[in-house]
Amino acid sequence: MNFRYEVIVVGGGHAGCEAAYAAARMGARTLLITMDMTKLAQMSCNPAMGGIAKGQIIREIDALGGMSGIITDASMVQFRMLNRSKGPAMWSPRAQCDRQGFSIEWRKVLERTDNLFIWQEEAQKILMEGSRITGVETAFGTRFLADAVILTNGTFLNGLMHVGFRNVKGGRSGDDSSSGLSQQLAGLGFKVERLKTGTSARLDGRTIDFAAMTEQKGDEEGRTFSYMGSGGVRGKQMSCYMTHTNAAVHEELRKGLEFSPLYAGRIKGIGPRYCPSIETKIVTFSEKDTHQLFVEPEGRDTTEYYLNGYASSLPLETQVNALRMVKGLERVEIFRPGYAIEYDFFQPTQLRHTLETKKVEGLYFAGQINGTTGYEEAAAQGIMAGINAVQKIRGKDELVLGRDESYIGVLIDDLVTKGIDEPYRMFTARAEYRILLRQDNADERLTLKGYEIGLAEKSRVDRLEKKTKMVEGLISFLEDSRLEPERISSFLENAGTAGIKQKTKAINIAARPQVTVKALLNEISPDYLLKLAESGMDSEVLESAEIRIKYEGYIQREKLIAEKIRRLDRVKIPPDIDYSELLSISTEGRQKLARINPDTIGQATRISGVSPSDVNILLMYLGR
């Protein structure tokens, strides 16, 4: 074997798979080291991709040329566009996936990717020369050499799983934990801390009374995550089901709290505030008598179901007794219990925006090792680490996305600038420019960037150009079309909006909230609508045009604000600046600036504890 590579990726989860694919696709000889090749990109928690803000991230990964969107489309059993009742900045695609199918599809892709090789073993040690990475060493003592190493160890670093007062070492149910790396990195001066997450019991669908629950079907409109996809879900969509806890369930759960490892102090890691365990819910929201639960299919060829909203580390008996008091689950049997897991992570303030560590050159961190939670956040970090590792090796400009360019940019900037004190989860509220960062325009924002670095294929650029041309053509058509009052009066009346008294541009009619572009075209030019349908891109062209027409003022205003802030991100701060000498800056400001060591003034403004006056003093020091 040739044990020399350009990039080594450690960990075969969502971050690792995207990192390895990106690096190899860009031409780097890449090795993916994983503890189990049969569980690549395993969905360790719920079998779904996307959701609020997370769906936008998957579309951004796809636009760059990554694979998470394509894999999701190939394995999804249900698709829904969430938040349709709100503005387009909030629309978020979500898909239920076949858990096994998702992993199988990823393996197919990785095994067929040129320049990519896979090795099944535990990586226990990084190799260095001075302060630069040179490779990794495995449990059997095998040494693999590389110019860059990306660690994506997920929950496996010293992972410890809890059910009641019983605990076992492991990275997830059925898999061993990984040891050695945390201790070595701590010895190198990295700050290592502990986090906690959890998952729910898996239910046997043969013992669930679905008729007693509320069915949640997928969208009838065929949609996909990938911009290159078509046709939506393959085969009949599977339904999810909603039920609720009740007072009896809560009372049964409270009986087990004294045996909860969380409340007995046996779990030291900090848990996710936005995805709490069921025992945390009944304590934190003690005034509530009920909580929603979602029963989600694990795949087409299994009777296994995931119970979303019921993560727990309570004793097995308590979990099952309480479950059987839930409507529709009175006779339920389970395949495995819920459990909590503690694991090591590294404060992401120790990283650059490229996800390269500040202490070791050529070493990158991506995924839950940085304190995030969720497949989507991990995959986003993975693709960016893979891209930047190759760019650095090639001596090219590394890729850093701005907060006004992508949710991925928001995610990474939040991590490296602010750090985390609980598992980080992306929300639309975290993005100050969310009307610019919609799920419909990720291709417009990122595809050319992906193509320029050699990740996105030319076919993506061709498709983007075709879509852009069609959107511009549709807007121009509406701009040039003038409608007589008598021609459009009945249409406006049926739409529930005021009539017009003089000739009016069709685009002004389309800007009204009661009118859809599709309905207007059907009224004034059915032939144009038919032409769009023949292109096979009518739904996304209509959607993009509609958003631009109705929200143009908001979009332009947000772009102006973003550009003002971006100017501050162009003002570089010398990396060797000694903040202790800048006595005019507040003590807290000096401490925070020294700890984070921001690259730009823009990043400095986003550090908690650094005031506007501190930034002004820093600008004066830099001659600005």
How would you explain this protein's 3D organization?
The chain is built from 20 helices and 23 strands. With 624 residues, the chain is α+β, with helices and mostly antiparallel strands. The protein has 4 domains: 7-198 and 343-452, FAD/NAD(P)-binding domain (3-Layer(bba) Sandwich), CATH 3.50.50.60; 202-338, Elongation Factor Tu (Ef-tu), domain 3; 458-557, Orthogonal Bundle (Arc Repressor Mutant, subunit A), CATH 1.10.10.1800; 570-621, DNA polymerase, domain 1 (Orthogonal Bundle), CATH 1.10.150. The protein has a 6-stranded antiparallel beta sheet with strand order 15-16-17-18-14-19, with no helix packed on it. Helix 2 packs parallel to helix 9 (375-393) and helix 15 crosses helix 16 (526-535). The longest helix is centred in the last third of the chain and has 32 residues, at 538-569. It is globular. The termini are far apart. The model has no long low-confidence stretch (mean pLDDT 94).
| Rg, Å, rounded | 26 Å
Distance between the termini: 56 Å
User: What is the CATH third-level topology name of the largest domain?
Assistant: FAD/NAD(P)-binding domain
Mean pLDDT: 94
Q: CATH class of the largest domain, please?
A: Alpha Beta
Percent of residues in helices: 25-40%
Strand order of the largest sheet: 15-16-17-18-14-19
